Amino acid sequence: MIDQGTNSIPEYPENSGARQRAIEAYEDARERAVDTLGQAPLLALAGGIAAGALIAALLPRTQAEVRAIRPTARRVKNSARAAFDAAKDTGTKRLDELGLTRDKAEETVRNLLEGVGDAAKASANAALEAARNPEKG
What we know:
The protein is an all-alpha fold. The chain is built from four helices and no strands.
């Protein structure tokens, strides 16, 4: 039912409450967004960049993009692989120099876990004994 004189929906009591709540919720959300952007503009910028990257990742690549990016992607991939290999080789050599081998590391972890298990069992037994004989505690 539209009021022909004003071309608007007439306000009924049941509509005005819901409408007012919707307006207040919108204004509250808008004020919070403005406050957040004012307090942390870099955070908003980062969020926008992340959203843009997500949208770009979801869109299919064109052939022109593939041709343009492929050489750079290969160089980056090869550089990353070389850096990883160099770090791995250097780390392995250094650990060997220190006498730290995979077998020694596994043995150390095994001993540590056994020690923790023994300590837990001893604690549980002590707690059980204390619960059974409260006079000794």
